[in-house]
Amino acid sequence: MHQKRNFAADSESGTRSCDHVIVALKLAHKGRDQCYQTSTHHHRSNSLATSGIRPNLLTEQHLTETSPCDHRDVDTMLINFPANATGLARLPTELLLEIISHFPSPPLKASMFYCLIVGGKELTERSAALVSLSQTCKTYRQIFLPLLWEKLEAFQCTDPKVEVRPDLPEWQKKVTGDIIRQLETVTIRDPALADHVQSVSFTLTEYSQDLYPRIAQCLPLLPRLTTVQIFGLEFKGSTDALRGAFENVVVPSVTTLAIPNGGHVVFPSFPNVLNIVCNFFYESSREDFLKKVIEHYPNAHRVHLCGLLLSPLLEMMIHRFPYLREIGPIALYTGINELPLRLLGRLRNLRLVKLTLVPRDYGYNDRWDVWSVSPCVMTVLDTLRQIPAGAKEVKKLIINSTFTDQTEVYVGRGTERLVSLQSV
Predict the structure, then answer these.
(1) Is residue 350 helix, strand or coil?
(2) What is the pLDDT of residue 183?
(3) CB–CB of 220/251 below 8 Å?
(4) Which helix (H) or strand (E) holds 386?
(5) Percentage of the chain surpassing pLDDT 70?
(6) 1, 42, 144, 329: most buried by Cβ count inside 10 Å?
(7) What is the pTM assigned to this prediction?
C-alpha cells in the first residue's frame, strides 16, 4: 500500500509540474486574442459573403452566431512574421505534446452527468488552449493545428452566462451552434482539415433534431474518423429522429461507438465497430441493448454497459461475444456463483478483466466479508493465466472496491502467473 501511495504522490507531483508549464503557456499567449481582435471581428461579419459559398449545413438562424474566424486568415497574418526560434517555441515537440496530453477529454464511458458536473470546465480547456497555441506563431501552428482538429467536441455549453441545464433552450442552442461551427469548418470552409479529425463527441438535443440529417451526412466526409461519442437523446421522439437521419449513411472507418441505449438505431451506419460503450440507459433494459449489440456486432472486442455485470448478462456476453478482449466490471459479492467466472476461459482473446467488490446482496446489506470472495479472485486469476497468449502479451486483472475506493492491479505476460503490482 505504501508503494501505491508513493506512486500516486509522484504522479500527482508530476501532474503539478505539467500544470505549471500549462499555466506558463497560457500566460505567454494571453495577448493573442487582442492581437487578432480587429481582423477576426471583420472576418466574422464578411467571410461567408465574400467567399460566395452558401453552406448547406447552416441555416440563417445559426449563421450569425456560429460563424468562426477562418483559420486561413490567421495563416495569412502569421506568414508576415519571422519564425519564432526563442523561448517556449524551442521546447521539444515531444514535451509540448506531453503537456497537452494532460488536458482531459470525456472518457468513453462518461455519462452526461459526468461531463456537466464532474468534468465541468476541465473537459473544455483542451480545445481553448489549442486554439490559442495554434494562433501564436508559425512553429506552434504546425504542431497544434492538427491536434486542435483531431477531436471535435461539443458536449456542453461553454458560455459562462448560460446556466448548466440541458433542458434549457438557450443551453441547447449554444451546444448545437458549436456542433455546426466545427462541422462547417472541416467540411466546407477548409476540407483539408477533415484529414485530422479522429473523434467526435456531441450532445444531440431536442433543439438540434432538425439538423440531425446534416450532421449525419458530414461524418462520412471525415476519412480518419474512428470514434463517435454521443450524449443526450433523452427526449420523446429522439430515437425516430436519429433513425431517419442515419438511414442512408454509412461510416466504415468508425471502430468505437459510445452512445445512450436509444442510440442503437445508428448501428447499421457503423458496420465495422469493435468497441461498444453504452453511456446512459432510459426506457429500456440493459439486456435489450445487449441483444441489439449481439445482432450487429458479434465480433466485438469490447462491450461496456452502464453499471456492474451480474451473472445473467455476464453469461450472455461470454457465450455471444467469442472475440472479447476486455470484460467488466463484474460485480463480486459474498455468495456469488463461481461458474460464470470459470466460463471466462472460453474467451480465448481475453486480456483484461475488471472486478468490483460490492456489499453482499449487491447493495442491500452492509455486511461484508472480504475473505469470502478470495476464492473467486483466485478463480479469475487462474482462468485468465491459462488462456493461451504470446510470451510478450500482457494480461491484467483490475479489482476496485466500492468501500475503500482502492484499486488493486494484477499483471502477467503470456501464461505466467499474474502478480499484484503492490507486491513488486
Answers:
(1) coil
(2) 93
(3) yes
(4) helix 374-386
(5) 69
(6) 144
(7) 0.74
Report pLDDT for 55. 41
Q: Return the amino acid letter for 11.
A: S
* 57-75 pLDDT, tens digit each: 544 344 334 444 455 555 5
Cβ atoms of residues 22 and 129 within 8 Å: yes
C-alpha cell at 263: 442510440
Grid coordinates given for 104: 482531459
- Here the cell at position 114 is 459526468
**Given this model, what pLDDT does residue 84 score?**
58
> b or e along 275-294 (b: 16 or more beta carbons within 10 Å of the residue's beta carbon)?
bbbbbbbeeeebeebbebbb
Q: How far apart are CA 254 and CA 198, in angstroms?
A: 9
Q: Which positions ≥6 away from 119 have C-beta within 8 Å?
A: 104, 106, 110
Q: Can you tell me the distance from the alpha carbon of 198 to that of 152, in angstroms, rounded to the nearest whole number?
A: 8
Q: How far is CA 257 from the centre of its chain?
A: 9
Residue 310, number of CB atoms within 10 A of its CB: 15
Cα–Cα nearest to 127, from 84, 205, 181: 181
